[in-house]
Specification:
Strand content: 25-35%
Distance between the termini: 47 Å
Structural class: alpha+beta
Largest sheet: 4 strands, mixed
Helix content: 10-25%
Number of strands: 13
């Protein structure tokens, strides 16, 4: 191919292919910004983590933390996994997406029994429910189980 020539694939030149890809990408991003529903009822809550005495949980997930890593009345954020794990009361563990439902910022480590999004100050209970802020729903639950002292995130 020399200067001024174009490579055509399926009747579309390179410039048109790039334009089409940009339009598809932009459309996908805009569609992802839309919301349905009206608020806290949009998030289905899951029960606390279950104990898995047979060790089957790791076959359907992977260990992401140990129970001693999660303080009672608080929690931790695992940024790589984008997960918040909380322990509102002794032995009751919950997991949620660490991505705020408002605009997708990562929430902070739970403090004083609350999960806070630093971007626009949305606040959530340790059970993931919305307290206040521009977020209109709670944090999206993630399924976990306990395998010995390991907290296992379902895939």
């Amino acid at each position: 191919m020399g200067a001024g020539t174009t490579s055509e694939v399926s009747g579309m030149d390179r410039r048109q292919a790039i334009k089409t890809a940009c339009v598809l990408c932009a459309g996908t991003m805009v569609a992802g910004c839309g919301r349905t529903g009206s608020g806290a009822d949009d998030v289905e809550s899951l029960p606390p983590a279950t104990f898995d005495p047979d060790g089957q949980a790791e076959e359907n997930g992977f260990a992401i933390a140990n129970v001693e890593d999660v303080p009672v009345g608080g929690g931790i954020v695992l940024f790589a996994e984008q997960v918040v794990i909380t322990q509102p009361s002794e032995g009751n563990f919950f997991a949620f997406s660490a991505v705020c439902p408002h605009q997708g910022c990562m929430v902070q480590e739970p403090e004083d029994g609350r999960i806070v999004c630093p971007c626009h100050d949305s606040r959530f209970e340790l059970d993931g429910s919305r307290i206040a802020g521009p977020a209109t729903s709670g944090l999206r639950p993630r399924q976990i189980s306990l395998n010995g002292t390991s907290i296992v995130l379902a895939q």
